[in-house]
Amino acid sequence: MGGLALVARAILNDRRTPLVFSALFLASMLGVLVSATSDRERAQNDVVRRLRLQDFKDAPLVLREVRHLEADTWYNDVEIELKNTSSKPIYYVLAYLDFPDVPVPSAGIYGLPLDFGADQNIDYRRNADPNDPFIKPGETLVFRIPESMRKGLKTQYEKTPDAMKRLELRLNVISFGDGTGFVAERHRDGRIKKGHAEIKRHHRRDRATAADSSEPPQDGCGTCSRYILAPKELR
User: Can you give the pTM of this predicted structure?
Assistant: First the structure.
């Protein structure tokens, strides 16, 4: 004990002692900061959002990049970049951004529409005006959440954050502006009248065949009439 007392007295009498204690204090504080930063990073990593493009055969748009999906305000900042991989310009796109894990009051899907192009070009059979906006082959389209829908999406996210980690993008209508396009993931050619003639010829004999051959609705939804759009007040 006598030896320890002498050592302690020597440390206290040493002019460098305040510096030693200051260094120890700074090291301790840095350790706390590093620990807090690590805990915060772990918490952020626990909230991982992922977006998947519902692809289909011969789809002329491919997902190139998703930006700012991990941001705290992703509903304001997210950017979904798609590339036109076809040999034609694209004059209209109607897509739905789905949140399949969000509970809805009835059988349906919680999501919101995203579109590009002149409204009249939603009809793929229409020849687009050359002055209408379009996406050239090889060029990209960037979808953002419409400003009018961000508040409702934010409200839903604050209610069910865990249910909004999985996002799916569905391409429902793609129009090339020349009478052709894709509707409900099926290639359509409005210049061909054969399909309509077959429907009319077989209508009385086989109603099921006629129903199967008919064109999907022009909004491209098919069975998506059950969509629950966000925000609710804008439906």
Answer: 0.67
